[in-house]
């Protein structure tokens, strides 16, 4: 059993930054790669970024490359998403999950709202 809790969302002006956190607990060794996903109003959930717990490969959606950075703290079992140069198109609920995602691990997410 794995529990994932997202935090760090909020309201920010366009051009601003936020850092999201995903705290993992339980059998986290069962997840090799962690990812961030987002769902904007009226749209399907989409992939944002992913990173292996052991380090190495990192993946980003084209829409966030150069602006978002995924990182992790293995000791804290926490994955971060640093988001810079935010725009209104980044407004969404952000979720963390395994990558590829598992229906078992979806949490409540954290709301990010970017005002223009």
Biggest sheet character: 6 strands, mixed
Our Rg estimate from Cα atoms comes to: 13 Å
Task: Assess the beta-strand content as a share of residues.
Answer: over 45%
Helical proportion, percent range: under 10%
Strand order of the largest sheet: 2-10-9-4-5-6
Q: Which ranges are low-confidence, i.e. pLDDT below 50, for 5 or more consecutive residues?
A: none
* Helix/strand order, N-terminal first: EEEEEEEEEE
The helix/strand class is mainly beta
Overall spatial form: globular
Q: Mean of residue pLDDT? A: 94
Roughly how many Å apart are the termini? 40 Å
What is the total tally of β strands?
A: 10
Continuous helix count: 0
Explain what you see:
The protein is mainly beta. It has no helices and ten strands. It has strands at residues 2-7, 10-13, 18-26, 33-39, 46-52, 58-60, 68-73, 78-83, 92-98, 110-115. Helices cover 0% and strands 53% of the residues. The N and C termini lie far apart (40 Å). The model has no long low-confidence stretch (mean pLDDT 94). The strands form two sheets. The protein has a six-stranded mixed β-sheet, with no helix packed on it. The chain has a four-stranded antiparallel β-sheet with strand order 1-3-8-7, with no helix packed on it.
Outline the secondary-structure elements:
Elements: E1 2-7, E2 10-13, E3 18-26, E4 33-39, E5 46-52, E6 58-60, E7 68-73, E8 78-83, E9 92-98, E10 110-115
Parallel strand pairs: 2-10
Antiparallel strand pairs: 1-3, 3-8, 4-5, 4-9, 5-6, 7-8, 9-10
């Amino acid at each position: 059993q794995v529990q994932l809790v997202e935090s760090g969302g909020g309201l920010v002006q366009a051009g601003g930054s936020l850092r999201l956190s995903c705290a993992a607990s339980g059998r986290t060794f069962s997840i090799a790669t962690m990812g961030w996903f987002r769902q904007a109003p009226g749209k399907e959930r989409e992939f944002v970024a992913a990173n292996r717990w052991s380090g190495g490969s990192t993946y980003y959606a084209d829409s966030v490359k150069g602006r978002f950075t995924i990182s992790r703290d293995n000791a804290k079992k926490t994955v971060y998403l640093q988001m810079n140069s935010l725009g209104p198109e980044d407004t969404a609920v952000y979720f963390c999950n395994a990558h590829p995602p598992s229906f078992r691990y979806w949490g409540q997410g954290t709301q990010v709202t970017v005002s223009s």
